[in-house]
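User: Predict the full complex structure for these chains.
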Amino acid sequence: MNFAFGSIVLALIWAAITASFTLLNLLLGWAIALIALWFIRSYLASPVLFSKVKKIIALIAIFFFELAMSAIRVALLVIMPNIKSHLKPGFIAFPLKAKSDGEITLLANLITLTPGTLSVDVSNDKKILYVHAISIDNKQQLIRSIAKGFERKIIEVFE
Amino acid sequence: MIIAFFQYIGGLLMLAGSIFCLLAAVGLLRLPDIYTRMHAASKAGTMGTGLLLTAIAIVSFDGAIILRAIAGFVFLLLTAPVAAHLLARAAFLTGHKPTELTIINELDSEKTKK
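Assistant: Here is the predicted structure of the two-chain assembly.
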């Protein structure tokens, strides 16, 4: 909490000192505050939060990369002349390791926006997420890539 | 000079976003069933709209507009997958049959077991 709170306070102080509350100036002040706090990170009370911020940023970066890849793949698929021969759709049961509602919701949303997969339903006991995939080459590999990719990253952020 | 540079970048993003939106629409027409169509609508549609909003943020040079464009993008990322998910689920629950091309259907067998 110290880190986020401290950086915002420092950013506001920066804006007050430079007498300009424009967005750009606030962002600049915030960036400087983050750098300054990073230098004294070992003296701050909660180093856990800092490592978590890094994980959240990593998750966001991966997410945007995957979103771009999936949009390009769908766009290319759509303009194929013989579209039917490229489709191998199917419903797959994905066993969930994530426990809480928040984690499952986040995972389901991320799956929908990443290459070739779409969340359809969660089983009543919250153990299985049903995923529709547009082109299945190897079912086990697809399940593994979700489990090792987004699900692991989400659990890391939430734990 | 710098303003012109940002305008070119914004223009290119706007063009790319429009192409993605167009291809999302083409996908809705050409794909065989609602489940595969949702792929085109959720991914290419989100990407296209996101690029358009980013383009607006870049060419506007106005903090308020940039903030609103970013907020719009964030809300789009939160809502588009939920909409696609709900449509696919509703289609499944009302008995909409997936295309014959479907190779695995674990959802169907699981549901009938209960």
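Chain A has a mean pLDDT of 79.
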